Amino acid sequence: MKKVKDENSKVRILEAATTLFAKKGFDGASIREICKAANVNLCMISYYWGGKRELYEGIIENLLEKQLEYSKGFLDLNKNPKEMSIKECSELLSSTMEKCVDFFYTNISSDLIIILLKEQQKSDFIVKSPVLDYVRKMVARLLNRDEDDRLVIFKTLFMLSQINSPRILPAFSLRLLNQKDFSQEDIKIIKENVKSYVNMLTKESINNV
Questions:
Q1: Which one of 61, 104, 169, 185 is most buried, counting C-beta atoms within 10 A?
Q2: For residue range 60-80, what is the model confidence (pLDDT) as tens digits?
Q3: Whether the Cβ atoms of residue 168 and residue 108 lie closer than 8 Å to each other
């Protein structure tokens, strides 16, 4: 019972910290107000993370851990995309992107998006996501190029933008729709856009054979 209670405290701290860091920034949000918002003792921060900086970094680490755990249900990261056929790789990429849409619109809050956008402006910030790295490997397979190739990186980026742009640019999506959140119909359209992009990559691959 105690372990469950402690885990709940950790979740509450992460949620409170995400909200306050998004609103006030790293320097503006204090450990004391984060603990107050999470309704936990101050010592819990040291217990789980050690300090404020570690807690801040822990928000992104927690996201990547959740993403990796989520991917285990549909993705084998040990399988080399280079050994797949074009058809197999295309189908896997398409289904993976569909799952990524579900994950992005279910597990990533608006506050977390703000933190991620701020972090990406830092010159030393690098996303260490096994799932996104694997997506890039699949794109590389379809284009018959190295995963670090410039074209592969940008093609992957453009595909991912099909997923995240509606939430990153709410003025061009939700506000025009007069909505507070995305409906299932919206999610379906986003998935179809991503699928169309994967199909385009597949056609490009076939034409280059």
A1: 104
A2: 999 999 999 999 999 999 999
A3: no
